[in-house]
């Protein structure tokens, strides 16, 4: 290996004079490809390796007149974190002009130079007559000149021809951000005639003679120090060069002041100064450092770099690090350590080869990166949905045994409380032990279905393991008292014709903890699997609480109750628990998803130490690992056969650990002895731990081992030992609770340190191999293979590599292990993801040793989450593109971890597209990214809700059965979510959301209904839950959830929510019509603040894009002008006209009249032939008013009519549960023959297809759709809405508008007056992909929104991209639309209350916006949005009033399906 002088000097020579020549190639591409790795440096730094390796930096040629010099850079100023201002001046020669060139880097908006000239004897600015194009005079005091955009930068040239001008002074204004840039609070000033050293970072001139005296290594160090002082900014190549020359100028200035070169070197390297001498230069540091071999200096520098977390060092910092490493080694030598001893000490393991590899590839301690393969992200698509189905196999009633009947009879006794019960098996028979309390008297029943004569051999115990003869006064008749026990003969009995035997024992108040017993039949003793039977008398069985009927709802109830019955056995040891779990796998699988979830909940309670791991039972480690192996084998088999359960199965396996038959577990027992023998530590804490390990090893041992390692590394600081234990949930009380308790603290000697760290490190591998399902090192070792290594460790163990791994996979895993502790997480995250993607095809097949691959994937996922959380600090001041890239990585990791990832993958595609737009500085990149950020949030919320619905009922029911701490039950699902990738992603999104909103000028609010209000703040979880409530004082709701279809409750004057309902959703329209403030708050801090004002009185004042609020007094409330505050209980004066059946079951559009149909049908008929020819109107017929009542009165439907009448009577008594029952009853109506005949004639006569032509089944679908429209008269929202305004619900009549469905590409809703601003000069519209139900229904996410000025229809302005994840599509079909007489009442917004139902079911499609021309094709989008706006304007002009229009787009053509007056 070459010495440092040669290597470092060569590197320094390569790095200096960047503009002169290129650095040699780093390493052959063949070598890099073989390792599947791409080497690169990290962020660009001054004179970094990244700069030095990019090849020659050629000076830029600038065309200048022959008699002029090139412009000099006179100033460089930092404007913000991304932008800098550079100023160059080309001084005037005789009779010419002075040119001032200004360039601002990385600009996004429009910049204005606000400037003037400075002259001697004049205080105000001179406004030069020679001005750039576009310059405007501002108030006769200044000039304002726009910069010209040039790529990512903005430039401007000013020419000064007035010789009296000595300087120019200026500010810069960013119009886009409404932001002024100053020079540290002052004006910028550039001198034109004197020094060029104005502005921070200006590089001064220096003579070449002096410059040559400054060694390049010192210039590099000085440049690094400047870079550190400036906050380690990322520099362009030009900036690097400028910084380098500025550093040189600073050093020359020092030399010119008389500082010697030796003192300068000592100052910069912090080395001892050389004595003044006339001899040639020979610094002291060089004299002493020659003693240290350069290869050792390189190794020591590498070790320092690894300890620092492998940061990306620029060349200057590398030189400093080499000098620091040299000093550390010299200090060792000065203490008397020989070079050979030094070499032996630091050249351990593969450290020398690592350093050699770094130097060979000329990486010089900069982080390498893997080259990710180009692939279609949809290759990792998984569409296995979690479908919760109530248990089918458990519906059949259980055949009760005689012991069940006995239990039931005891529970039904008046005043009888069952305290505990236990069912034991012996052969094919059972014995039931029950402890009860009646009138404060305790009694134990032991009953069996064994029919032969039987003796109970029993005692009582006040502590574990005790056999004590009971007092004679409690012995049952005929009992025989022995020294330590009692024998009682069972008595025969009968219940419901079934025979059993029983012993009843009435206990005294002796404080007994339990009752041990065995059975004797003749000369044969009967035991419980070799142990005594034992009834626990100290704990109360919570399973016997009276069942209200809801307990266990939404769970695999029978499985959970079986788990509860077996829990006492499971507590004996982890071996028992895992074997019981393996026995339950089939029952869990048969119960479906809820069964798998139930198994997971139980194992999770175990893993989080909510359940006892060991009680009164010794078990060998190999037996525990064998039981683990059995259980995880069963899980592996289910993983292969049931892909829809894989997500939950992975969670179970991660909680259980790997296990391993035979030697894998036995190593735990053997290797602790090796540690004690090797390191002479056989007593104290180590012996107590040894006894615990022999008796019953558990996952706690991994934590104990880590605590010992941390304690030793801290030079035996005992507080570090306890800190590690406590952080991982192990307290002193828990250590004392083990059957083999750990009482002592560790106490080691300094000479034991090295050996203990070595051996405990090896031992940790064995512990994690058994107990940890997410340990990366053991997972990789198991898949890659390993064999015996280390004295006394892994003896005789050999695991072969998994076959069929992808090419280059071992190198990929090696890369991951090498970088797992790196401070810069990005390269590691890329490596982890690449490994997971490479592994995925194997996990979808059924290879041998799939279990090992599953555990590897679990470990890769866990490491990814840990590394991401570690990188938060790195992202603190990162550029938007870097944060977006991190989010992209976390999204991909989440997609690899869930069973149904289609939505997440489409989010990822859109996010990556937004990232590219951001890199290209496209104008609306932030608006585009914001839509996908919102969609990702929706996906995470949906996932959280799915987990809660799936897991929390099981956690609550099993928790109650097992007496788990209530706090652990309450946060069960929350903790699962918090520990996954979704929580990591959510944290990143919350960080980035304000950045996007700022760039996109979105603000923190979207004001949907701008009304100034005052009221009392009330925080609610869901608006839906309080929509029927009446508030007795003006109330402003802060609702965490608003779906879009809710009603505004009485008394509510404002609704604030983080949810994003469409501006044209039902609740939004309701709010505007009712003059209620309605707004979305995007800022989590503001929302949390508002939630803290619960029950306080506040005033809210909105603008179009913001809301101000303040606390007020009640006297101010009285003076409030809030329109809703004064009319909280105001009810509009409206009424319904009762409609009659006029003799026709069906009518054509020509017959539509006010007596027959509602406004919806009449308006669509009116449009026919009147709208422009390019606007389509679908053909329509209708089922008129009164038809429902006519059908109900038909003799065919007599029973249905009677049932509905009874239900309506219940409804009149405020029994609102009758609403759902009425809707169900309506669906039982039969169709009169005349109705079918007339409807068929009208539909065919209008050119519409008749459903019956495709078979009776299709007509039945149509008839069911018609009935669903009628039934919607009794949906809760519509009923309470009409009730609120005191409409007679009986008078509400429902016509049905029948239209052929246009299989839409897009659907839209138009308001021809902007509903948010009230501006009648502009149209507001929303557009969704597919059918319009996702727009008008309560589908999550936002539609695309835009406005269009009526006097400029060709220029629609996009307000927001869509975030709705779902689109609805349908083949050619018929839709039946509600058209009630309650939808066109003046002053009452009845639209949207009732249902429109298609004959055929729509297909739900997860939307990919990255291929949608409306999103990605600007020309297409402009054309479609303009056509939609024109259609709305034409209809408004036709009616002469603002309209609310619904329609669709098919193949570019606009169709209007309905219109109504805008309210």
From TrEMBL:
<dbReference type="InterPro" id="IPR055495">
    <property type="entry name" value="CWD_DUF7067"/>
</dbReference>
<dbReference type="InterPro" id="IPR056301">
    <property type="entry name" value="GWD-like_N_Ig"/>
</dbReference>
<keyword id="KW-0460">Magnesium</keyword>
<dbReference type="GO" id="GO:0046872">
    <property type="term" value="F:metal ion binding"/>
</dbReference>
<dbReference type="Pfam" id="PF23166">
    <property type="entry name" value="Ig_N_CWD1"/>
</dbReference>
<keyword id="KW-0547">Nucleotide-binding</keyword>
<feature type="domain" description="Alpha-glucan water dikinase-like N-terminal Ig-like">
    <location>
        <begin position="75"/>
        <end position="192"/>
    </location>
</feature>
<comment type="similarity">
    <text>Belongs to the PEP-utilizing enzyme family.</text>
</comment>
<feature type="domain" description="Alpha-glucan water dikinase-like N-terminal Ig-like">
    <location>
        <begin position="423"/>
        <end position="537"/>
    </location>
</feature>
<dbReference type="InterPro" id="IPR013815">
    <property type="entry name" value="ATP_grasp_subdomain_1"/>
</dbReference>
<dbReference type="GO" id="GO:0005524">
    <property type="term" value="F:ATP binding"/>
</dbReference>
<feature type="region of interest" description="Disordered">
    <location>
        <begin position="23"/>
        <end position="67"/>
    </location>
</feature>
<dbReference type="Pfam" id="PF22973">
    <property type="entry name" value="GWD1_pHisD"/>
</dbReference>
<feature type="domain" description="Pyruvate phosphate dikinase AMP/ATP-binding">
    <location>
        <begin position="1260"/>
        <end position="1462"/>
    </location>
</feature>
<dbReference type="GO" id="GO:0016301">
    <property type="term" value="F:kinase activity"/>
</dbReference>
<keyword id="KW-0067">ATP-binding</keyword>
<feature type="domain" description="DUF7067">
    <location>
        <begin position="294"/>
        <end position="348"/>
    </location>
</feature>
<feature type="domain" description="Alpha-glucan water dikinase phosphohistidine-like">
    <location>
        <begin position="1004"/>
        <end position="1117"/>
    </location>
</feature>
<keyword id="KW-0418">Kinase</keyword>
<comment type="subunit">
    <text>Homodimer.</text>
</comment>
<keyword id="KW-0119">Carbohydrate metabolism</keyword>
<keyword id="KW-0479">Metal-binding</keyword>
<dbReference type="Pfam" id="PF01326">
    <property type="entry name" value="PPDK_N"/>
</dbReference>
<dbReference type="InterPro" id="IPR002192">
    <property type="entry name" value="PPDK_AMP/ATP-bd"/>
</dbReference>
<dbReference type="InterPro" id="IPR054481">
    <property type="entry name" value="GWD1_pHisD"/>
</dbReference>
<feature type="domain" description="DUF7067">
    <location>
        <begin position="216"/>
        <end position="271"/>
    </location>
</feature>
<feature type="compositionally biased region" description="Low complexity">
    <location>
        <begin position="23"/>
        <end position="40"/>
    </location>
</feature>
<dbReference type="Pfam" id="PF23229">
    <property type="entry name" value="DUF7067"/>
</dbReference>
<protein>
    <recommendedName>
        <fullName>Pyruvate phosphate dikinase AMP/ATP-binding domain-containing protein</fullName>
    </recommendedName>
</protein>
<keyword id="KW-0808">Transferase</keyword>
